[in-house]
Amino acid sequence: MFKRNLTLLLLVAALAAGLIAAGLAFARSVELEEPMLAVDAEQSRDVPMTIWFQGFLADGTTGDPITASYEVVARIYDQAAGGSLIWGPEAHAGTTITEGWLNIELGATVALPDFGNPPYYLALTIDGEVLEPRLKLGSVPSALRTATVDVLLPFGELVNTSSTAFMVAQNGTGPAGWFDKDNPGGGPALLGVHSGAGPGVEARSSGTGPALFAHAEGAGIAGEFLGDVEVDGTVVAVSSDTFAGDFYSDCVLGSGEVSVLRSRYTGPDGQDAAGIWAQATPDDAWGFGGVFDGSLAGVWGRVDVLPINGGGFGVWGVCTGGEGTSVNTGVYGLASDGADNYGVVGEAGGGPRQDNYAGYFLGDVYAEGYHGPVAFMKIDHPVDPANRYLAHAFVASDDLKTVYDGVVVLDGSGSAWVELPDWFEALNGDFRYQLTPIGSPAPNLHIASPIAGNRFAIGGGEPGMEVCWQVTGIRRDAVAEARRAPVESAKPGDKRGKYLHPEAFGLPASMATDYSEGRERAKEILREKFRKGR
């Protein structure tokens, strides 16, 4: 009979918790009432999944250490006596025992269990004799590195401590913690819950590597936060998907608005700052600094003008650079597929001075399409430019009419040729003439030869007489022929009874042909936003 003095001295190599003596990371130990062993065989193929056991064996009568060779059979049960067999039997034939000391490698021939539901008890049979009582397996207090862990604590169990419940620190260039999950149908790779005032997960890095690195493949989510997120520093999001960050909110308020993403500058005054700064400048593709999709307004810009700025811009578009053939556009508006479509709408009013411009352009203005019903020019008054304006209305016609005039001196025969530009007949047709003598009547003054070869002749006047001439034409170039508008047309059915300018007839704005209750409501919402702010 053996006298047993078996002491659990070392659990070297893996201890089925994925422990390996390498690296320099620090894992904080948490004392558990029962041992919790964890393993992820797929992720830790390089870690030996065995337990080295060392014990002391003595003679039961004399107490002398035994030196011999015996078969040692190991089993693991879920109870100290009786219970269910969890693992084994694993036979170690010809185990050498030297001066009482024996060493066996558990799991060398029979794979160890996943140790997911402790406690566990080791039972040994030596040379056919079962040793009593069974040995309860304990946990390892600390290790130099934890390779992989499938479960740290059973879900729902808490660690009661006044300090950090779980902490991983790294002084090198790699991440302090790496949490990876391949199961697409399960929970998150990392879940932090804190019922008090502190954070559920806190990560710090004093080196060049990230404090916390999360990775997801396929349709998985690398990180999900339910609640406020506070970041002191820079957040770097890298994704091979179409977006690196996905923010959503299902909040429902009785009144007011919900902001899915809100960014604010809270630094000191006197600093130029941007609430959100976005950049996308691919070398060989289109880059969009921001893409916004809304059901009322895609982009809503508002400025509370400071006195020192002297003005502001609700939306400011700048486009510069490019090659010699590029066409740059500062602001582009496109509207389509509606009953009425307006690419750009400007509205101005409410200022204490007279200058309220719905559109203000510094430079040439080019427009394709029709202009409004009345067009004016407005310039500084040539007599009193510092204090007054001069306004003239443009001349209107029922066709694309052109007007040319000049003064000619008749020759000794009382006639003259008037030379016109070489493009005159290519542009114009259907000519009209008017002649006015200067100084005396000329009852016989007339057009001696109509326009041909880009010139015409005047005759019947007095020698040396000055004559004012005027010629009008109708454009007949390709663009004019393609865009000629009918002088009169019937209003379509949905426009009948409506007016382009109802106010001119003493009618309300709702009688306008382009009136839209929804658009007016949208404009009122935008005006309300401007008055109240966010």
Give me the strand/helix succession: EEEEEEEEEEEEEEEEHEEEEHH
Biggest pleated sheet: 5 strands, antiparallel
Distinct helical segment count: 3
CATH level 1 name of the domain at 2-136: Mainly Beta
Rg calculated over all Cα atoms: 46 Å
What level of helicity do the residues show? Answer: under 10%
Q: What is the arithmetic mean of pLDDT? A: 77
The separation of the N and C termini measures 87 Å
* Secondary structure tally: strands: 20
Strand content: 15-25%
Task: Summarize the topology.
Blueprint: E1 2-5, E2 26-27, E3 51-59, E4 68-77, E5 85-97, E6 101-106, E7 121-126, E8 129-130, E9 135-136, E10 168-169, E11 178-179, E12 213-214, E13 376-380, E14 389-393, E15 401-409, E16 416-419, H1 424-427, E17 428-438, E18 446-449, E19 455-459, E20 466-475, H2 478-483, H3 517-532
Parallel strand pairs: 11-12
Antiparallel strand pairs: 1-3, 2-10, 3-6, 4-5, 4-7, 7-8, 7-9, 13-14, 15-20, 16-19, 17-20, 18-19
